[in-house]
Amino acid sequence: MSRKPKILLTNGSDIYSGGEYFVLEFGKKLKERNYDVTICCHPGILLYEKAKRFGINLFPVEFPVKGQIFKFTKIIYDYIKQNKIDIVHTNNNYDRTAAGYGAKFAGAGHITMNHSYHSISHNITQYIRNQYCTNYFLVDGFCTKELLSKEDKINAGKIKVIHLGIEPEAMKRDFTLRKKIRDEFNINDDIVLFGNTGRLVEFKGQEYLIKTFAQVCGKFDNVKLMIVGNGKLEKDLKGLAANLNISDKIIFPGFRDDMQAVYSSFDVYLHSSIEGGGETFPFSVLYSLAQGIPAVVTDVGDVAKMIEQGETGFFVPDRNPEAMTEKIIYLLNNKNLIGKYGSNALKLLHKKFTLDIMFDNIIDVYNKIKLKN
User: Fold this and answer.
1) Virtual CA dihedral for 315, 317, 320, 323, nearest 10 degrees?
2) DSSP assignment of 303-353
3) Strand spans (E) along 80-155
4) Where in the chain is CATH 3.40.50.2000?
5) How far is 98 from 327, CA to CA, in rounded Å?
6) Based on CB atoms within 10 Å of each CB, which residue in 11, 202, 251, 280 is the most buried?
7) From CA 318, how far away is CA 143, in angstroms rounded?
8) What homologous superfamily is domain 168-352 in, according to CATH?
9) How far apart are CA 171 and CA 291, in angstroms?
10) 15-40 tens-digit pLDDT
């Protein structure tokens, strides 16, 4: 490749979760490396506002949930042609289709990223997009590559596994922020605080996490759990905590945008996702590695590949409160391991899961696409 390509990063979602975090961080890194990059997303949402603050070019589009695909294909097509975009990099189901077709018709390359363990071929429009309008598929995990190859009949040679990465310094443990959060929620220094972050929805498995913590609280008094996020299950999860008589042990702070501070307050991270929801390689676990804290996670998607068993934490079967409880109690009975495992976790992040490593791997795929001139 004789020159750097002009990149259009698209994201059709109106929420701010792992996929949107990826678009922002990757866009920032492209800009830092002097690529001409534009982020295309809903105007006014958190992703849009954050990208704006970092001075990234923006192309606001009011993506619908479904329908009007030809209209939005034309919108993207016009932008590609007018701005001489070389590569369109899509990230969600709707923009994957609209921008994928737009790129094909405009003569640009199309790379798409699938952030979940789900099929991406449900109709003839998507099948054609996958077979004829996409140069490469980037996936977070090996499990997703196998699924797309077998179920969606996508050529395995076009599917590249690229594990996600983060900027270590951006999530570095900060003891001033730790005190700030702990003071905000009246958490004493002698409390071992367990943390969980994510949307409060079924596949995140917080129901099993609360049942786990009820067992832990039956054996230890100086523990608390903070479940950070919002979602449709918030009322049900609070009700479950009340029914198990541990409402005083679980903190529900809602959605937070100060994740470095929140994670700095944690001593151990717990990840309870269940199979069937599409969890593959969550940033939430990477945050714990960057903080240098151990994690106990469920073995779904490629999550277990983020943990070195008995070295940085533990992975256990999903929907199994007893298995997770056993590992938590082991850490509470061997508190010296919390620091040791945490130190190992930080080393693992630097070795495998930094933003620079992820960036270089994605650019290697970009370089396989022949530019128009």
Assistant:
1) -50
2) GGGG--BTTTEEEE-TT-HHHHHHHHHHHHH-THHHHHHHHHHHHHHHHH-
3) 87-90, 109-114, 136-139
4) 7-165+354-366, 168-352
5) 46
6) 11
7) 16
8) Glycogen Phosphorylase B; (3.40.50.2000)
9) 6
10) 888 889 999 999 999 999 999 999 99
The per-residue pLDDT for range 322-355, each reduced to its tens digit, is 999 999 999 999 999 999 999 999 999 999 999 9
Q: What is the pLDDT of residue 3?
A: 85
Report the C-alpha gap between 111 and 87 in whole angstroms: 7
CB 274, CB 319: distance < 8 Å: yes
Q: Are 371 and 86 within 8 A, CB to CB?
A: yes
Provide the Cα torsion 212, 284, 257, 355; round to 10°. 170
> What tokens does 224 get?
């608390």
Structure tokens at 239: 């009700």
Q: What is the pLDDT of residue 1?
A: 47
- Judge contact between 199 and 315, C-beta under 8 A: no
Report pLDDT for 277: 85
For residue 233, the SS3 value is: coil
- Intervals of the chain under pLDDT 70: 1-2, 373
The whole-model pTM stands at 0.90
Residue 372's pLDDT is 78
Residues 263/314, Cβ–Cβ less than 8 Å: no
Phi, psi for 122 (deg, rounded to 5): -120, -5
Residue 253 to residue 148: CA distance in whole angstroms: 37
Cα separation of 116 and 303, whole Å?
Answer: 12
In 50-200, the DSSP E strands lie at 57-60, 87-90, 109-114, 136-139, 159-161, 192-197
The upper half-sphere exposure of residue 360, i.e. CA atoms within 13 Å in the direction of its Cβ, equals 5
Q: What is the CA radius of gyration of the chain?
A: 21
Please tell me the CATH superfamily of domain 7-165+354-366, with its number. Answer: Glycogen Phosphorylase B; (3.40.50.2000)
Identify the CA nearest to 192 among candidates 67, 342, 373, 355. 342
Could you give the percent of the chain with pLDDT greater than 70?
99
Q: CB–CB of 262/280 below 8 Å?
A: no
CA 180 to chain centre: 25
| Exposed e or buried b per residue across 268-292, where buried means at least 16 C-beta atoms within 10 angstroms of its C-beta | bbbbbbbbebbbbbbbbbbbbbbbb
pLDDT for the residue 373: 61
